[in-house]
Design a protein that fits this description.
single chain; alpha+beta; Ubiquitin-like (UB roll); DNA polymerase, domain 1; 3 domains; five-stranded mixed β-sheet; 7 helices; about 50% helix; binds FE2/S2 (inorganic) cluster
């Protein structure tokens, strides 16, 4: 064991010695240059990965151009003509083709609910719905909740009344889930509502305030519907 330790120590020491030798050799790298080289190498790797991402996304969009098909979908009461790829998700179409960025993309894999929209009045994760499958169906996003004159939906108003979110990244998903849930149960208990919107996550963990706001939204909605 001591022999192993000695060997390790000696390997380590000789490793250091060889680095020092190469760094200190005439005409060789100075320590400063060596460190700069490591940092620059890291930066180069970082830049390379960005370039890779950019080029793959460019590749994706250029190859998609060939595979895009013009379809019509109904979003927020309007017929929208849009070119979509066959594998394109509704979240992508809404955000990047139709400019409806109120729909957020969190996980992009059906886990967080940030991308929730209503399809035929039922909440769906739009990151997991293919756009071409919503032809002939009614899509509503957070932008479609307020009335024409700009009056907020009662659930949106409740968010303001209760200051219900911190960063609010998750907000549109929660609001859309709540609006969808209230269509089936307009007078829920707090537990029922919590259960009803449990498919939505908040990274700020602001659940208590969110539930206060959503319960207030239910109450607001009952008042205007009475
Ligand atoms: S972005 Fe769709 S569920 Fe998270
Ligand atoms: S308030 Fe920040 S993610 Fe929910």
């Amino acid at each position: 064991m001591p022999e192993d330790e000695d060997r390790t120590k000696s390997d380590h020491t000789s490793g250091n010695a060889s680095i020092n030798a190469s760094v200190n050799a005439p005409g060789a790298l100075t320590r400063r240059r060596f460190i700069l080289g490591v940092i620059a190498g890291g930066a180069a790797v970082g830049a390379a990965s960005y370039r890779f991402l950019a080029s793959s996304s460019h590749h994706r969009s250029s190859s998609s151009d060939a595979g895009e098909r013009l379809i019509t979908i109904q979003v927020n009461g309007k017929q929208r003509r849009v070119d979509v790829m066959k594998q394109e998700t509704l979240a992508w179409t809404l955000r990047y083709k139709l400019g409806l960025t109120g729909t957020k993309l969190g996980c992009d894999r059906a886990e967080c609910g940030a991308c929730t929209v209503l399809i035929d009045d039922v909440p769906h994760y739009s990151c997991s719905v293919l756009t071409h499958t919503v032809r002939g169906r009614k899509v509503v996003t957070i932008e479609g909740l307020a009335s024409e004159d700009g009056k907020l939906h009662p659930v949106q108003q409740a968010v303001i009344d209760e200051q219900g979110f911190q960063c609010a990244f998750c907000m549109s998903g929660f609001v859309m889930s709540t609006v969808g849930f209230l269509k089936t149960n307009p007078n829920p208990t707090r537990t029922e509502l919590a259960h009803g919107i449990s498919g939505n996550l908040c990274r700020c963990q602001d659940y208590n305030k969110i539930l206060n706001a959503m319960m207030r939204g239910a109450e607001n909605l009952r008042k205007v519907s009475a």
